[in-house]
Structures are given as C-alpha cells and as structure tokens.
Amino acid sequence: MGKYEIAWLPGDGIGQDVMEAARIVLDRVGLDADYIPGDIGWEWWCKEGEALPPRTVELMKNTDCALFGAITSKGKDKADKELAPELQGKGYSYRSPIVRMRQLLDLYICLRPCKAYPGNPLNYRDGIDLVVFRENTEGMYIGVEWPQVPEAMLAIKGAEKLPRDAAVSIRAITPGGSERIVRAAYEYARANKRKKVTVIHKANVLRQTCGVFMDAARKVAAEYPDVAFEDANIDAMGMWLLKNPLNYGVIVTTNLFSDIISDLCAQMVGGLGFGCSGNIGSNYAVFEPTHGSAPKYAGQHKVNPIATILAGKMMLDWLGEADKAARLQGAVAAVIAEGKVRTYDMGGTNTTLDVANAIAAKL
Ligand SMILES: NC(=O)c1ccc[n+]([C@@H]2O[C@H](COP(=O)([O-])OP(=O)(O)OC[C@H]3O[C@@H](n4cnc5c(N)ncnc54)[C@H](O)[C@@H]3O)[C@@H](O)[C@H]2O)c1
Fold first, then answer.
1. Residues 85-94: b if buried by 16+ CB within 10 A, e if exposed
2. Residue in 141, 186, 248, 284 annotated catalytic
3. In Å, how far are 38, 41, 99, 134, 293 from 47, measured between CA atoms?
4. What is residue 267's predicted lDDT score, i.e. its pLDDT?
C-alpha cells in the first residue's frame, strides 16, 4: 500500500483540540499518510449555508478515509439567525453534516467499541469489552416527518384515527438494510472470536418494522452456526446491560435503539472522553469521537483526547494496519493503567496534549 490520503476534519470547538492530539500520536506510530484538511461545521453553515460544503464531500470521495473531530449544531431558530444576512430567506435549512455524510457515502455501519481499560477510575465494572453495531442510514433517522398529520395520511386505513395535530415521524426498515448490518456484526464476531451476537428489537410492539429486522437477523444468524444468536427487547436490554454487562460481546440493532444503547455502553467505560465510533461503508469510512464540540472548553486543551486517539486506532484497523493499531491501543492502555497523566474527567490536571505526548512516548 502506498501513502494513505486521509481527510482531516477537526470541525468546531474541542474538535480542534482533540484532533491536534490525535495527530501527535498518529505521527509517532509511523503511519505513512497525507492528512488533507477539510471544512465542516458551524462556521460553514453561517458563512455558506452548508455545514458540509460540497468541496468537503468531494475531498472525502477522493481520500481513503476520514478522521473527524466534532461539530456544533443549534436549533432551527438560532441556526436561521446566525446564517449570513445575505443568505437569509433564500431557502437554506440547517442539516446535520454527520447524518448527511452517513447518507451521502452510504456509511451504513456505526461501530462503537466499549472497552473498560484497566486502571480507568471511570469504569462502571472491570472487564467490560463489547461492541455495538448501529444501523446508520435508516430507521427513525431518515428525516421523513411532519409537524402535523398530512391530509393524505388520514386516508390510510389505520392512520385515520390519528389526532390531526399530531406530529408524525416515519420509521423505515428494509430487509436489505437489516441484513447487511446484522451480517457485519456476525462477521466481526467470527473474526474476533466472540461467542455470541445479541440482536435488540421491540418486535412485540413495532411488529412490522422490527419484524422485518428480526426476520433478516434470523436469516443471517443461520449462516453463522459457530456464533450463538440471542435476542432481547430494547427496554429489557437497558436493564440487563447495567446488571450483567460482562454477558455481552457484540450487540446489533436499528438506528434509534443503538443510538441510545451505545451511549449507555460508552458511559460504562468512561463516558465522553472514551467513546469513539467508526461510520463504515463498503468503500469509505469516517472515524470520530462520539462527543460534541463542548464550546465551553474550546481551545483550552483541557478535554480528554483518548476517544479521538482510539478513533484513530479504529482507523488503523480499517486501513489494514493491524500492527500499528495494536501498538497504539497498547500505548493508550499503558498510560491509563499507570494513572500518572490524566485530564480533568479522570480526576487529573493534565492537558489534552500532555495525554497525547504520554501516549506517544509509549510508542
Ligand atoms: N458528533 C458530534 O459532533 C456531536 C455530538 C454531540 C453533540 N454535538 C454538538 O456539540 C455541542 C455541545 O453539545 P453538548 O454540550 O451537549 O455535548 P458535548 O459532548 O460537546 O459536551 C458535553 C460535556 O461533556 C464533557 N466532555 C465532552 N467531551 C469531552 C472530552 N473529550 N473529555 C472530557 N470531557 C468531555 C464536557 O464537560 C462537556 O461540557 C452542541 O452544539 C451539540 O449539538 C456534536
């Protein structure tokens, strides 16, 4: 493999701080790459009416993958007011750049590893080591909704009794979309010697949409007799995860359910300073910490860069750089275990760059 080309998307607020830290570590691990900066975030919404400008989408299409920091987003009223005066009233409407990049590049897997690194004082319980596979392109997040029931919908059998002033969102689940995310979870389980995949749903209530998902899940599971299949209702799963988190290794579910469950899992292993994710498609992937731009800490180099550094580790794995990924993970684990260099969230007083330099020094 020649030199990698990586789209470098720090975004807003602490996105800049944590990406600076990630770069120190990636340079030290010796990845042969050009990092090409791209524009994303609130600044570009305000200036251009687009938080993910077309040139950034082009950049992504012409690179191997992307590392992304965080963005700021605001409700409709604030977004409309902060748009450049010359663009106001011209039909611009704020759209989440994260949701858009997932849809534009068909990044259908959101992979979120949650591992309790020994020595992390924020661990809920030692030994937690699970991954959540989130379906990233359909479900409740397709963006088809109305502030009031559309007239035409009232003519549909079953919908005619809806109160007219009800807001309505559509949940769309396809057999193909379900099959490919469940298959990704099973492939991961097999490759990483995980014994079981847990599929989460609410099929007793959402009979049609969860029914399609579960039919696809059972069909895929039958192709992997070496990996056990287990299913659980989303509500019960919240309880079981808190009670017996060590019982789970690979979890897969639809978009909204896994959005919630993966935050719960991330909190069990240290919270926002540790949660990272990969948005992965067939040919492209975007890796990111799961936290936001934390404006109150922007530019202070105060926040924990470990989530972003672990997103970098995921990127190395995806690029096929397994040795560098393992070395990087070992360095992160060693710094956490030593407990000498810690940002405020872990009870320490060190800076973002202190942590990055300590990890780099282990490489
Ligand atoms: N993926 C993303 O880019 C993303 C995700 C969530 C929120 N947001 C946006 O970020 C902005 C701020 O949102 P928010 O305040 O609700 O969430 P946030 O994740 O930005 O921060 C919430 C709080 O968590 C803590 N925190 C976050 N990251 C940390 C880190 N790396 N180390 C230590 N502590 C950390 C800080 O105390 C921070 O104030 C909003 O505009 C929101 O829309 C973006």
1. eeeeeeebeb
2. 141
3. 15, 10, 20, 33, 18
4. 96
Catalytic-residue membership of 259: yes
**pLDDT (tens digit per residue) in 305-327:** 999 999 999 999 999 999 999 99
Q: Structurally, what CATH architecture does the domain formed by 1-121+272-363 represent?
A: 3-Layer(aba) Sandwich (3.40)
Helix, strand, or coil (residue 290): coil
- List all residues whose CB is within 6 A of at least one atom of ligand 1: 70-73, 98, 272-273, 291-294, 296, 303-304, 307, 345
Question: Under DSSP, is residue 115 helix (H, G, I), strand (E, B) or coil?
Answer: strand
Domain boundaries, the chain: 1-121+272-363, 124-129+173-268, 139-170
> What pLDDT score does 2 carry?
75
Confirm whether 186 is a catalytic residue. no
Alpha-carbon span 322 to 320, nearest angstrom: 6
Domains 1-121+272-363 and 124-129+173-268 alike in fold: no
pTM of the model: 0.94
Of residues 27, 235, 323, 340, which has the active-site annotation?
Answer: 235
Name the superfamily (CATH) of residues 124-129+173-268: Response regulator (3.40.50.2300)
Res 45: pLDDT: 96
Q: How far is the CA of 10 from the centre of ligand 1 (A)?
A: 14
pLDDT band at 1 (very low <50, low <70, confident <90, very high): low
Which ligand 1 atom lies nearest to the CA of residue 307?
A: 31
pLDDT, tens digit (0-9, with 9 covering 90-100), for 183-205: 999 999 999 999 999 999 999 99
